[in-house]
Design brief:
Layout (H helix, E strand, L loop, with lengths): L2 E2 L2 E2 H32 L6 H19 L3 H22 L9 H23 L15 E3 L4 E3 H23 L1 H11 L1 H5 L5 H23 L11 H14 L4 H21 L7 H12 L10
Antiparallel strand pairs: 1-2, 3-4
Helix pairs in contact: 1-5, 1-8, 1-9, 1-10, 2-3, 2-4, 2-8, 3-8, 5-6, 6-8, 9-10, 9-11
Amino acid sequence: MTAIFGVPIQAFLGQLLIGLINGSFYAMLSLGLAIIFGLLKVINFAHGAQYMMGAFAGYLLLAVLGIGYWPALILAPLIVGLVGAGIERFALSRLYNLDHLYSLLFTFGLALALEGTFRYYYGSSGQPYAVPDLLSGGYNLGFMFLPKYRAWVVVASLIICLSTWLLIEKTKLGAYLRAATENPTLVRTFGINVPLLLTFTYGLGAGLAGLAGILAAPIYQVSPLMGSNLIIVVFAVVVVGGMGSILGAIITGYMLGILEGLTKVFYPEASNIVIFVVMAIVLLVRPAGLMGKDA
């Protein structure tokens, strides 16, 4: 078989791979958004900026300290997560008792401030970040060439998403996190530090964005604009999956990434809007999202 619906199989599989890679980033980023909204009820518009910070953390660790990709894969999300924890502790925590609009406006302003700061120091052009030697090259599958790094991104994303879902849904810590947001007074009676759990939750979501950023750095250039170009699409993914649904964010991220990639094969003109068309349809048919809970 050399063609699928009249499309050469190489082109089909190539776009399928691109869609799976994009879906990997959509899943990781929407997962972080879903955690923050689902547990804290904060619409985190700074998520794209935190994704960008993860990429820049890896770039600066290499350029300034000579720290390579593998240590940066651990350090970059930790740095972004700690910055996020500081933001939650000293700013967001003061807004929890107010209307959700205040936290939305705060994170939106924070995103603009972070993006503006990095643009001031590094300009709008992207900075290169080399693929680690271990993951350079690729595999010749006969019908297509599969770059090792892109295969690694897909595998790493699956591991990260599954591990995070298990942490939130299947562990005692995850149960404490969910309980702390639903009934903080009851949780305090067990001697649990609720504010610390809330800080950890936001730091975890920000750290996931930073991890996605360092994974993306060798594929896309490290740029102050990389987060703002992606965040609207990721919000659409979260809406389709269901606001606050962790499993919905993961599954929908991969599905819509693949759909976007295949649309570039069969109807390229619609590839930039297909996710938003799906979002509009889902909102009309099921406003809570595919896996969200009805109010």
